[in-house]
Amino acid sequence: MLCPSCNAPNREDAKFCKGCGHALRVEQAAAPEQVIISAPDVPAQAASSTPTAEEKEQQMATTAPAESESAAEQASASEDPALAPTLILSPEKVMAYHSRFWAQGEEEARRAARPAGSGGVSEEEVSSHPADQPTIIMPPGNNLPTPPTQEQVIPVADQPTLQMSGLAPQPSDDVPAPAQSEQSVAPTFDAEPAATLEESAEQKEASQTMTDQPASDEGPREDEGQPGSEPENEFAALAVGETLIGRYEITQVLNESPEEHVYQIIDHQGYQHCWACGSEQNAEGDEFCIDCGASMLNVPYILHEYSASGGSAAEANVFQGVIVNSFVDRGHTYAVEQPSISQSPFPLGVQLLVAGNSDAGNVRRADPNEDSTLVLQLQRVHESVSAPAGIFIVADGLGGHDKGQMASRMAVNVIAERMTRELLGAPLQTEKDGAEVKALDEDDLVGLLRNTIEEANLALCQKNQRDKTDMGSTLTGYMIAGEHAYIVNVGDSRTYMVRGGQIYQLTTDHSLVGQLVAGGLIEPDDVYTHPQRSQIFRSLGDKPNVQVDVFKQQLLPGDILLSCSDGLWEMIRNPQIESILNTAPDPQTACMRLIDAANTNGGEDNVSAVVAFVR
Length: 615
What we know:
2 domains; 615 residues; single chain; elongated; Phosphorylase Kinase, domain 1; 27% helix
């Protein structure tokens, strides 16, 4: 198929463009419990015994060419892992999947180490250059079920290695250690040829005599520079820019020691194994993974280098990440490590669907609606990663006060103006000027949100002082930046979150009945009928120094956020809110159903809701 963005040709089963990472189509993922995962690249074993030569000839004679081609296509389609449905797996399922895959890789390594004629692979296959072989996920230890920790020591000698050209396979019942040959033995200084065998024996005896003598601190050793002695620069660090086996380029030297060198590298054949999802369906030249859309270029790895005599250092090493490949080159052992990073639950960024709505309610239908809502969202996608930012607010003007509708509108306007200028407009202007945009950290975001609410409160207080009024408003909502939501609350409006199908109240009511519930004086259900349920002790416009609740919430795929006025949650109990949010197909429908339910249950106050679906 052709990519609608860059017109690059892709396979029919590709989910993302290999040239630009653009999503090619959207598929509905099956429920995890309804799908059976099988390891890729493992062909099914035939159930019947192997036919004889006569039976094969007879079968070939009686089978039509068209039928053979049809059967081959069906078999290929049934074994092609790219046709399996895309799934989002839990970390436990991912580790179980990799454990099975690593075990199969070890079995193949054992078969490759057996001599020819013993059921192993052919000598030509063994001697193939590792640059021509696919990257293999190797186990981080002796069949460890989980990634290695600081307490788990993983010897490099126990890691399976790829056979180099000219290396003869050695039979072994365990995972084979790196084989040694003339090409892989540590180099020594060339010695002058011995005239006779007797002379060589005399030199060997003299060398042994010198070795047996105790070391002396006086003067240099007599055997320095003699045949058999190791040069001091034998284990020198590789230079930046050098490439190993035509694949791994050194970009930085991280550590040097007599036993081990550590480098940062780039894998120029990273397409063989996607670093993000593990897909092996990509081809040379693909810039983005066709299964997850991750960029395949310039992905950093860690390379560990061990000398031929550095076995003790290798045994003492503890890897922090996952070993994705190991090989022997120039007499040294190498292990390629993918650093263990905190896996983001949003590999392609956060996708947001947000909507808001408000209604005057049944009882106050003839009066002005004193609620105001704000949905201010900017969502950009760069390099296939979505980066949302926005502010979502519900403000409830205080009933019985002067111009409650004006108070909620002023609060929302001040917040919208400040957030547009600093949260959304400033980064765009910085990019327009050609400068690098500095990412706001948690303190900056919390400070911006708190200062914005305080500015709205101050504007209301100044308005009350000038006009001799006492208007005010409650306020709740959330600011979303990346993978986190920053919840804000002043008063008795509420913000909820539904995660895993269960509803949670994120905010605390700043009301009298809220304090009574917190103190255990009344039951939680009494807040709906208590005669003093309308009394609050915190609101915007009351005093210049208002206390604002602000806290951070990590987002996960499938989360649903709801901010609402008290006219909604007083009419609908939490189980009904939970049911509506879980069954609504989109945020706009959820808002309409919540408002309709509140009016059906009485509609005694203005009803407002802002709902966000996190994808």
